[in-house]
Structures are given as C-alpha cells and as structure tokens.
C-alpha cells in the first residue's frame, strides 16, 4: 500500500511540475515554458497567502521563495542540458581567452577617458595570466 501511495505522489508531482510531462510540454521554447511556470507559481503563492494568512506579507515571502526555488531548478536543468548536448562547453582551461582577446583586440581608455581599440599581435595567445 505504501508503495502505491508513493507512486501516486510521484506521478502527481510530475504531472504538474515536470515540463516534459505536464501540458506545457507542447510549448517548444523552454524559456516560454519557464515563464508560464513562474506566472503559475505567483498565482498559486498568492492564492495560498490570501487563504492562509490573509496577508500581503505572506504573499511576498511565498512569491520570492517560489521564484528562487523555480529559478534554481531551471538553472540546474539548463546546466544539465548544456552538459548533455555540448560537454565541451565546460572546457575552461584548454584554449582559454578573455573576451577581449578572443576578438583580437582589447579596449582601453586614455587619460581623458576616450575609448581606444588596441589591436593585439597576430597569434597572441591571450588570457589574463600570461
């Protein structure tokens, strides 16, 4: 009986919270799905805050908690997806270049504050630690 109840809770959770299972799976853009889930989280946190505490303060705390929680889940899932699709994205040490050196120039300001583009020598390996 406990195993049946556990499976029921697991399936119920996934039916609502898992973007691959719930009806939002039909929205192709993951960012749009995330936004819709955020709107739903705000809605439900406001409903529970009003029902439980009849207080705007409770809604604020609940809304912030939902945003932080859902954003943490989204960042984690996005990181996992990047690691799955493009594991070389995490090769920070081999061929590291700072953004400025990656463009073969870097930007500096002169003593008057004017922005100057300084081109780097051909074949310069770049990086801040040379």
Q: What features would you describe in this structure?
A:
- By secondary structure, the chain is mostly helical.
- It has two domains: 2-90, no CATH class; 99-124, no CATH class.
- It contains four helices and two strands.
- It has helices at 2-17, 30-52, 56-85, 99-102; strands spanning 105-109, 115-119.
- It has a two-stranded antiparallel ribbon.
- Helix 2 (30-52) runs antiparallel to helix 3.
- The longest helix is centred in the middle third of the chain and has 30 residues, at 56-85.
- The model has no long low-confidence stretch (mean pLDDT 76).
Please outline what is shown here.
The protein is mainly α. The protein has helices at 2-17, 30-52, 56-85, 99-102; strands spanning 105-109, 115-119.
Indicate how many domains the architecture comprises: 2
Mean pLDDT metric: 76
Structural class: mainly alpha
How much of the sequence is in beta strands? Answer: 5-15%
- Number of alpha- plus pi-helical segments: 4
Main beta sheet: strand number and arrangement?
2 strands, antiparallel
Provide the helix percentage: 55-70%
Key phrases:
130 residues, elongated, two-stranded antiparallel ribbon, mainly alpha, 56% helix
